[in-house]
From TrEMBL:
The gene is putative Protein gustavus. Gene3D superfamilies: Annexin. GO terms for cellular component: cytoplasm; nucleus; plasma membrane; vesicle membrane. InterPro entries: Annexin (IPR001464), Annexin_repeat (IPR018502), Annexin_repeat_CS (IPR018252), Annexin_sf (IPR037104). Belongs to the annexin family. GO terms for molecular function: calcium ion binding; calcium-dependent phospholipid binding; phosphatidylserine binding. This is Annexin. PROSITE patterns: ANNEXIN_1, ANNEXIN_2. A pair of annexin repeats may form one binding site for calcium and phospholipid. Keywords: Annexin, Calcium, Calcium/phospholipid-binding, Repeat.
Amino acid sequence: MTLPRQVQLMIEPTKSHDNFLGRPSLVRVEKIDVSSDIQILHNALKFITSKRKIVDVLCSRTNRQRIEIIKAYKACYDRDLVEEFQRKFSGDFRDLLIAMLTPTYEFYCRELFDALNGTTVNEDTVIQILVSLSSREIYNVIQKYVKLYGNPLEKDLKTETSGNFKKLLVALANGTRDESNVLDLYSARVDAMELKRAGTEKWGTDASVFNRILCLRNFDQVRLISQEYEFVTGHPLDKDIKKEFSGDILDGILAIIRISENRAEYFARCLYKSMIGIGTDDRGLIRLIITRCELDMEDIKGEFQRKYGKTLKSMIKKDTSGYYRKALLKLIAE
């Protein structure tokens, strides 16, 4: 028996919403011996620099546990572990260690600040962070950002970006997305028709309509809107979006659509992009690995292999080397 279309839409499983329990590659060990950890790290740094022991300890601990280790190390040896690593190591391995030892919200703020204040704006970084964070997480980032840099994040977004892309980023940074995960088929149909009128049926796309709908609706609802759009127009929403937009605003809107469809596949795509072509975007690779390993990296690994016909492990092994490679692989449980 074929179910009514409305019922089919309502019961399809989603992989996008904020309450989705992903499969992490780095699982918190409830009871750790911090005193043993800091002694191992101290010996590895003082007597003979042992990158292997450092990787074994830090890549087996969550971000919160690493912060506990930093505090304990300072209390026991009166030394800053981050500064120790900065003096002892260099290159990508050092950058990975420092990133791992940075509190999560401070890390996101640093990534956003550097992305917005470089010689050119790194739009990919800004999009990946703002699109993927929950409203609560965005609120915490906003509070931390102004403490660290003196300027509100919104001010920097408005200063360093422009046009419809700026409006999209500001809307995302407001952190006002509905997170109820409630689905409303009638509202999805209304929104789909409004997107149609603001896009293909209008001379000159009304980007404000796309920003309002796609930045306010919960991700499950965005997915439902996409399905309704295809039902009423006969073609996918992302296909029309590619016709109506270009450049950074296109990348931002597509990121929202892709996360609504399959969050793990979206991050698999980001990881692939960081390693494909000439040269590796090591900063992007580090950010993606350390922020997703505690959330849904096992799901991302599966989507990566399905989409690209190769494992994430194989690409990391090909594009990185040394203990930098070993650390990345340990974080993704390979």
